[in-house]
Design goal:
Blueprint: H1 10-16, H2 27-30, E1 36-40, H3 46-54, E2 59-64, H4 67-75, E3 80-82, H5 85-89, E4 97-103, H6 121-130, E5 131-141, H7 144-157, H8 175-182, E6 188-193
Parallel strand pairs: 1-2, 1-4, 2-3, 4-5
Antiparallel strand pairs: 5-6
The protein binds S-adenosylmethionine.
């Protein structure tokens, strides 16, 4: 299982950037909380803010490689990790996270770029490991190829999973999704529960 390839330019970009006092999330912080929700690749952060408003009893935090989004959530007092989400997920202990959202990850449509897709077998194995028992992973995409790939990965790992969800469940609508819906694109949701 190969790891997805992360943006090559990120580390040099990060060194040049100054963040507005971000509320930095560390794997250690997670140990202080029982109920945790992670929003992976939250973009500008609207979905993370909505998740926090919907789940008052949870620590809601986000992982993102986009500085503007990190700064947005710092202003809202939401903990974030700036960098490769996978690098952070790998450091989390087993059976720790209640809900994980990966909403509209970059589709990397060209075949030669597919190895950059953040969700693959390896990423799912990490997500499944860190979810608590009965924990939930929600994947959404408007890219049919990526959605089928994600469905197959999850079904191969877990036969009980029923594939695409009939609706978006109670997840927030994201900024990227609004743009996709304006273009009449179909949205695919997969809601996985760990048993
Ligand atoms: C298409 S945008 C979707 C943003 C948001 N979830 C939405 O639906 O509006 C994908 C986001 O994932 C972030 N991203 C991509 N790869 C990442 C990685 N390895 N770690 C953290 N963030 C990543 C990008 O910076 C981008 O903001």
């Amino acid at each position: 299982m190969n790891k997805p390839i992360f943006y090559k330019s990120f580390r040099s970009r990060k060194q040049q950037e100054s963040l507005n006092s971000p509320r930095a999330l560390t794997p250690r912080t997670l140990k202080e909380h029982k109920y945790i929700i992670i929003d992976i690749g939250f973009g500008t952060g609207e979905s993370t803010i909505n998740l926090r408003n919907m789940h008052k009893d949870y620590l809601v935090c986000g992982l993102e490689a986009y500085k503007l989004g990190i700064n947005n959530l710092a202003k809202k007092d939401i903990l974030t990790y700036y960098g490769d989400a996978l690098e952070f997920l790998e450091k989390i202990e087993n059976n720790t996270i209640a809900k994980i959202y990966m909403l509209f990850p970059d589709p990397w449509q060209k075949k030669k770029h597919r190895k950059r897709r953040l969700f693959n077998e390896y990423t799912f194995s990490v997500i499944n490991r860190i979810l608590v028992n009965k924990g939930m992973f929600h994947f959404a995409s408007d890219n049919i190829g990526y959605a089928i790939q994600a469905k197959n990965i999850i079904q191969n790992a877990c036969k009980e999973n029923n594939g695409f969800s009939k609706n978006r469940g109670n997840r927030p609508i994201t900024k990227y999704e609004k743009k996709a819906l304006k273009k009449n694109k179909f949205v695919f949701d997969i809601i996985y529960t760990k048993y």
